[in-house]
Amino acid sequence: QAGVSAYLFGKLGNRSLAEEGAQETFVRAYFGLSELKKQGSFHSWLLGIANRVAKEELRNRKQLANLDSLADESQKQKETNDHELEEAIAKLPDSYREIVLRRFYSAQSCLQIAEELNMPIGTVTKQLSRAYAKLRQMLSDNNEVRK
To answer: From the CA atom positions of the chain, what is the Rg in Å?
Structure first.
């Protein structure tokens, strides 16, 4: 067991992963013992299993690192997009900004906004529509500048 653990430590560079890999190697060897053709090649056969275990572990760690990297990248992009949207909302005229903030940050319906601001619902929906158009234009302009 010490030889397999040392072999895996050299491949994986981590003592606990090497110990787990050694356990996995011996479990696989136990269940695959009937596949061993020559008793004299047991050590080589065992190291072959250990090598496959190490490759699987390295592949899994690489996939996890890739997933972590993608998640970090996605989170950074989301934060950038959120920041750009917040800046664009801040640049809206006061009447548009108030309606957008009430609609999406306070989750109010157009009817609730109209009642609270004492204006016709048609005016609220029209200003909301115009605010969307301005936001789309500002965000589009920002994307063009970055390219």
So the answer is: 31
What's the confidence (pLDDT) of residue 122? 92
d(C-alpha 100, C-alpha 70), whole Å? 31
Using CA atoms, how far apart are residues 26 and 15, in angstroms rounded to an integer? 17
Is the pLDDT at 139 greater than 90? The verdict is: no
Q: Exposure pattern of 129-147 as b/e (b: 16+ CB <10 Å)?
A: eebeebbeebeeeeeeeee
Give the 3-state secondary structure of residue 3. Answer: helix
Phi (first) and psi of residue 136, to 5 degrees: -60, -45
Tell me the pTM. Answer: 0.46
pLDDT tens-digit profile of 84-107? 878 888 888 888 888 888 887 788
Mean pLDDT of 117-143: 88
The answer to whether the CB of 92 falls within 8 A of the CB of 100 is yes
DSSP H helices, the chain, are 2-12, 15-32, 42-91, 94-100, 110-117, 121-146
